[in-house]
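Re: magnesium ion structure - here you go.
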Amino acid sequence: MDVTTVASWQQLPRAAHLPGTVVVIDLLRATSTVVAALASGAREVVPVAEVAQAQECARPGDLLAGERGGLPIPGFDLSNSPREAHVAPLAGRRVILTTTNGTRAVRRAVRAGAQRILLTALLNVSATARAVEGTQRLTLLCAGTAGQASLDDLFCAGALLHRLAPREVDDLGLAARELYAAHRDHPVDYLSLCAHGRRLLQLGLVQDLEFCCREDALPLVAAYVDGSVGRA
Ligand code: 3SL
Ligand code: MG
């Protein structure tokens, strides 16, 4: 397995072609929310880039979810909180999700023609690791924040790499694996230091941060197929 790590979705050119498997990571909070929604029984989660697109593609019975600036979107049913998704009555429902970075990262992976697209968070990291074992070309597409690397996404990328035995890992992946190894015993304290962690704390969302750090609490594989994310 050869691993390439991309720090943010904006760093992947629109014309890029990604061979093999892509794992999209937005630990805080979009991929955590997707995993929590699927664990709650959601039939599928449709990741879209824009608020208007979400509204346009919603059919009767669908739920609208997402955030802008970390805050709920007026008129939507759910925010981008994995905690909220985990307790919401989602059984059999289709959830249309739009977020600032995470859902756009998924769209960029689709545009790049990846053969297989998985979404991971810490909540399902070991299940994702098992699902990508044997993959030859693996890209870890971090959502990032405002086009830059985000420590939370790198921490999650490191958690995934810690569970794999790749032949080649790029420097960003090596750094991610090392920071995970150094801080895996105190993830909440560590991720409270990073820009997005601080933002969540400012918004009073420390419990979301704690929820996102629950390693392997929701052991499912989240796969994007034909326009939506479901359980593989
Ligand atoms: O950027 C995103 O996609 C969001 O997950 C960010 S937030 O945690 O909802 O602020
Ligand atoms: Mg993020």
